[in-house]
Design goal:
It is a single chain. With about 350 residues, this protein is an alpha/beta fold. The chain is about 55% helix and about 5% strand. The strands form two sheets. It has a five-stranded parallel sheet with strand order 2-1-3-5-7, with helices on both faces. Helix 1 crosses helix 8, helix 1 crosses helix 9 and helix 6 packs parallel to helix 11. It is globular, with a radius of gyration of 21 Å. It starts with a helix and ends in a 23-residue tail after the last helix.
Amino acid sequence: MHNFRRCIINTAIFLVLVLVLCLFVPVFYFEGGIAANAGKNFDVKERQSYAGSVDTIFSGASHGLCGFRPSVYDEAMDTSSYNLSGSLLTMQGRYTLIQQELSRNPVETVILEVSYNALSRTDTTHFEGDYYMIGRIDRLSDRLKWIGSSFSYDEYFDLYATALKDGRPYLIHRMKGLLVGAGEQEDWNPDRGFLPSDPKDLTLSQEAYRQEYHTVPMSTEINQENLEYLNRILKLCQQKGARVILVTLPLSQLALNRYDNLETVRLQYAQLAQENGCLFWDFNLYKERTALLSDTDCFRDINHMSTKGAGAFTRLLADTLSAYDGGQDVSGWFYGSYDELPRVGADG
C-alpha cells in the first residue's frame, strides 16, 4: 500500500512537471528564444497571423530552413508562402505542422525538401528536432500529445533541464523588453520562416578534391517511421487538394564530390514520387548548378545554402515550376543521374 501511494505521488509530480513545461517553458524559450538555434523566432504567432492567407508551404529540415526564401518565391509566383522547415525536423514534425496549416489555410502547393538523409535519419538524432517542435505547437493539448509521443520517459529530465537552461537568455530579453515597452513583433522573421546566413568559401585545390572523392557513403537504409509519415503527408495533401512537389536542394560542390550513394537515394525518391503521382526535381542535377551556385559565396557550410545561394535557388525553383505549368518539358534542364554529373576531382 505504501509503495502504491508513493507511485501515485510520483506520477502526480511527473504530470505537474510536464504541465509546467508545456505552459511556461514555451513563453521563456521556445516561442521566441528558439530563433538563436533554429531560426523560428515567434513562429507560432507569425503563423497565426497569416492564417487564412497562405497558399504555398515549404517543408523540410535544415536544408529547407536555409534554402527556401518565401519572399523570392512570392515575388516570382504571385503567391503567399511560408517556410515551415526547422532544424532537425523529423517527418513526424513535418506532418504535424503541415496538418495544422492545411486546416487553416487555402494551401494549393506543398513543396517538400527531401535531402540525402530525410528518410534514413534514425531516432538517435531526433531529440533536438523534437525539442524545438514543442514551441511550434500552439495548443496545450497538442503540446502534451507531442511530448508523450515523441520522447521516452528517460528523456524527460534532459528535456526539462535543457529547456530551462536555454530559456534564461530569452527570459532576460523579454524582461528587458517589458521594462522599456518594446513589442515582440520587431523580432519577427521578415522572410516568413527562412533562416538567413552568411557565406563561407568552401573551394579546395584540385588535389584536395581528388583525395576526398566519394569518401563519405550516405546511408540508403530507409527508416520505416520516416517513410510512414512521409506517406501520411502525401495522403493528407491529396485529401486537401494540395499538390506535392518533392525537391532535393542543391549541395555544395565539395559535398557532391565527397558523398557517395547519392544516386541510390535519388532513385528512392524518384520511385516514391512516381508511385504517388508527384513531381520530383533533384536540383543537384541542374545542368547550370555550378554557374548559379558557387562554392565561393552561395553556401554557409558544405550542406546548406547562404542567403545569396537560397535566393538564387528559390528563383530557379519558381522558374522551373512556372515553365512546367506552362507546358514546357523541363527534363532537359537536368542531368539524368548522378553518374552523368561532372565532379571536380573525379578520376579520369
